[in-house]
Design brief:
Layout lengths: L1 H23 L4 H27 L5 H27 L7 H26 L5
Length: 125
C-alpha cells in the first residue's frame, strides 16, 4: 500500500505539472488536446490507485494487480499522448492501445475484487 500511495503522489504531482506546462507551451490545438486528455486520464487513474490502496487493507492480490495495471496504463497511454502532444512523435508504436487495455483490465480487476468481496460477506437483511 505504501508504494501505491508514493506512486499516486508522484503521478498526481506530475499530472499537475504537465497540465501547467501544457497551458503555457506553444502547442498546436491538437497537441494541447492530446496532453489535456493524458492529464485527465492520469488524474482519474491516480485516484483509482489511491482508492484501491484504501480498500485493499487486507492485501488483495486482485487490487494489487489493478494498481499495477493502472500504473502501466498511465505510463503507456498517458506517456504516449504526452509524447505525441509535446513533440509530435510517438513514444512506442502501440503504447497507447496497450495502455488503454491496461486501464480496462485494471477496472475489471477492481470489479472482480468487488464480486469476490461481496460473495465473502453474509447477506445483509
Amino acid at each position: 500500500m505504501r508504494l501505491s500511495l508514493i506512486l499516486a503522489g508522484l503521478f498526481g504531482a506530475s499530472a499537475v505539472a504537465i497540465g501547467a506546462v501544457s497551458a503555457h507551451a506553444d502547442l498546436s490545438e491538437y497537441g494541447r488536446t492530446l496532453v489535456d486528455k493524458g492529464v485527465l486520464y492520469q488524474f482519474i487513474h491516480t485516484l483509482a490507485i489511491v482508492a484501491t490502496a484504501a480498500f485493499g487493507v487486507e492485501k488483495s492480490k486482485l487490487l494489487l494487480v489493478a494498481q499495477a495495471l493502472f500504473t502501466l496504463g498511465i505510463l503507456l497511454f498517458c506517456g504516449s499522448l504526452y509524447s505525441l502532444g509535446f513533440t509530435e512523435t510517438r513514444l512506442f508504436g502501440n503504447s497507447a492501445p496497450l495502455g488503454g487495455t491496461s486501464f480496462i483490465l485494471g477496472w475489471l480487476f477492481v470489479a472482480a475484487y468487488g464480486f469476490m468481496y461481496a460473495r465473502s460477506r453474509p447477506a445483509q437483511p
